[in-house]
Write a structure and sequence with these properties.
Layout: H1 2-14, H2 19-55, H3 60-81, H4 90-95, H5 98-108
Helix pairs in contact: 1-2, 2-3
Length: 109
């Protein structure tokens, strides 16, 4: 995280920014830390779905659906972390559609 912060700070200082650079830096730190947390979630979910797939505790199609969803989620998280797409952009939302649907459906019906 520290390296990412320093890179962003050097870009902002080189552009001639002043006090707003500190505020932007803190916001970027928060966003990056949140993205790393999401990546940790997807890594754990991938391990669970692999165990379910191999042990056949749940139907294989459901495990495969989960593995596909976590692969897309990991891709979205890495794209956001490295700045290829914006946080909460349309691309990120589309790549994460399979996972939130399961959470909403189990919570609300």
């Amino acid at each position: 995280m520290g390296t990412l912060i320093l890179v962003r700070l050097s870009d902002q200082v080189a552009a001639g920014a002043s006090v707003s650079a500190s505020a932007d830096l803190i916001r970027d730190l928060r966003d990056s830390a949140g993205t790393v947390g999401v990546l940790a979630f997807y890594t754990g979910a991938t391990i669970y779905y692999l165990v379910f797939y191999r042990s056949q505790l749940i139907p294989r199609w459901l495990s495969a659906w989960g593995l596909a969803g976590t692969a897309l989620g990991l891709t979205a998280g890495l794209l956001v972390l490295f700045g290829a797409i914006e946080l909460l952009s349309g691309v990120q939302v589309v790549l994460n559609l399979s996972i939130p649907y399961r959470r909403w459906s189990s919570r609300y019906g």
